[in-house]
Amino acid sequence: MRMVDLIEKKRDGRELTEEEISFIINGYTDGTIPDYQISAFTMAVFFQGMTEKERADLTMAMVHSGDVIDLSAIEGIKVDKHSTGGVGDTTTLVLGPLVAAVGVPVAKMSGRGLGHTGGTIDKLEAVKGFHVEIDKEEFIKLVNKNKVAVIGQSGNLTPADKKLYALRDVTATVNSIPLIASSIMSKKIAAGADAICLDVKTGAGAFMKSLDDSRELAEAMVRIGNNVGRKTMAIISDMSQPLGYAIGNALEVKEAIDTLKGQGPKDLSELCLTLGSQMVYLAEKADSIEAARELLEEAIKSGKALETFKLFLESQGGDASVVDHPERLPQAPFKLELPAKVSGYVAEITADSIGTAAMILGAGRATKESEIDLSVGLVLNKKIGDKVEAGESLVTIYSNTENIDDVKQRLYEHIKVIDKKVDAPELIYEVIT
Ligand code: URA
Ligand code: CA
């Protein structure tokens, strides 16, 4: 087989076979096919697209380019959740213990964050003593015992995707639905998921800004999953404004605790119940999405979800007393308010800009090497559609310095208050099964 012939075939819009796709991915992984040929190939895919069969074959070729995590020693159907990323997205912290409380095994491999706020591991490390440096045997034992555990990323997962993503980044070929969908799905499958629940974000703070693009991506991923034998569902949810109120690591742990108590922000709680219901259903712990939701609501009401969170923190060395004493989480030295300049209705809280403001405070990483401050961040006091009086606080800023004029100015620029009534945006646009 010659790579040049395969580039030509794709350039002319013909369908590649499974063998041909494996040849490309294996050759790129082992270095026998050079970057310039893969660049031409990804550009051909960008313009010609890929058939459903090609997308599934590409996904599995990337899965097999490296290690595949074997979770078969964990009892039950392992359902993984994936979010395409947003600002103040506290769902993973809530969903882990919540679905575990109804018997769904959550074997989570997580990373650190880049940008807006930390990743799941950073957030959990706001709990004193909590650590993810556990070995595989301990990880599996914990999931079997508590139904939830988190381990740091290890091993050589989807090396083909790592190389390809870096190359796409510099050849203007990131924005291709078949390439994005296979990239995301390959990582989930290599991490050992039997079933996958996807939260595709849409709006200013999301990777996909328009609903049409978000829908196309969600449908592409659901089809790949189902075509390669992993039951997959997706929802499309709003990321025009940050999710919940809190943006920042310790602040989001507190928000997750509130949500597990049934006292969380309305949007975060609803999103967790919606995604959680799909996870419980995919794990075959309920016969319908409605029955799954009832189980989750009961786990919150009975305190079982909160107990599971405590057990999970404790089992990985964390100080579980933060659940009853959130003041024991890292506290920022300064708590400052952002008063509204005029009365009216909140019309915009641009998610990505608010995320950047939290990052400037120190809640996120500008580069992979940056240190983050787990205590700092923002708590929104108003969301889109809320009425506000001049002088009332729009945002509470948790900071390690009083000198935050740049952050305040950024927040004022991206939180618009107008004098006309505004409707709150829809939270969940679509459910795709
Ligand atoms: N996220 C990924 O993991 N892969 C892509 O291709 C785009 C976003
Ligand atoms: Ca939040």
TrEMBL record:
<keyword id="KW-0808">Transferase</keyword>
<comment type="similarity">
    <text>Belongs to the thymidine/pyrimidine-nucleoside phosphorylase family.</text>
</comment>
<dbReference type="Pfam" id="PF07831">
    <property type="entry name" value="PYNP_C"/>
</dbReference>
<feature type="domain" description="Pyrimidine nucleoside phosphorylase C-terminal">
    <location>
        <begin position="345"/>
        <end position="418"/>
    </location>
</feature>
<dbReference type="GO" id="GO:0005829">
    <property type="term" value="C:cytosol"/>
</dbReference>
<dbReference type="InterPro" id="IPR036566">
    <property type="entry name" value="PYNP-like_C_sf"/>
</dbReference>
<keyword id="KW-0630">Potassium</keyword>
<dbReference type="GO" id="GO:0004850">
    <property type="term" value="F:uridine phosphorylase activity"/>
</dbReference>
<dbReference type="InterPro" id="IPR035902">
    <property type="entry name" value="Nuc_phospho_transferase"/>
</dbReference>
<comment type="function">
    <text>Catalyzes phosphorolysis of the pyrimidine nucleosides uridine, thymidine and 2'-deoxyuridine with the formation of the corresponding pyrimidine base and ribose-1-phosphate.</text>
</comment>
<dbReference type="GO" id="GO:0004645">
    <property type="term" value="F:1,4-alpha-oligoglucan phosphorylase activity"/>
</dbReference>
<dbReference type="InterPro" id="IPR036320">
    <property type="entry name" value="Glycosyl_Trfase_fam3_N_dom_sf"/>
</dbReference>
<comment type="subunit">
    <text>Homodimer.</text>
</comment>
<dbReference type="Pfam" id="PF00591">
    <property type="entry name" value="Glycos_transf_3"/>
</dbReference>
<dbReference type="InterPro" id="IPR017872">
    <property type="entry name" value="Pyrmidine_PPase_CS"/>
</dbReference>
<dbReference type="GO" id="GO:0009032">
    <property type="term" value="F:thymidine phosphorylase activity"/>
</dbReference>
<keyword id="KW-0328">Glycosyltransferase</keyword>
<dbReference type="GO" id="GO:0006206">
    <property type="term" value="P:pyrimidine nucleobase metabolic process"/>
</dbReference>
<dbReference type="InterPro" id="IPR000312">
    <property type="entry name" value="Glycosyl_Trfase_fam3"/>
</dbReference>
<dbReference type="InterPro" id="IPR000053">
    <property type="entry name" value="Thymidine/pyrmidine_PPase"/>
</dbReference>
<dbReference type="GO" id="GO:0047847">
    <property type="term" value="F:deoxyuridine phosphorylase activity"/>
</dbReference>
<dbReference type="InterPro" id="IPR018090">
    <property type="entry name" value="Pyrmidine_PPas_bac/euk"/>
</dbReference>
<dbReference type="GO" id="GO:0046872">
    <property type="term" value="F:metal ion binding"/>
</dbReference>
<dbReference type="InterPro" id="IPR017459">
    <property type="entry name" value="Glycosyl_Trfase_fam3_N_dom"/>
</dbReference>
<dbReference type="InterPro" id="IPR013102">
    <property type="entry name" value="PYNP_C"/>
</dbReference>
<protein>
    <recommendedName>
        <fullName>Pyrimidine-nucleoside phosphorylase</fullName>
        <ecNumber>2.4.2.2</ecNumber>
    </recommendedName>
</protein>
<keyword id="KW-0479">Metal-binding</keyword>
<dbReference type="GO" id="GO:0006213">
    <property type="term" value="P:pyrimidine nucleoside metabolic process"/>
</dbReference>
<dbReference type="Pfam" id="PF02885">
    <property type="entry name" value="Glycos_trans_3N"/>
</dbReference>
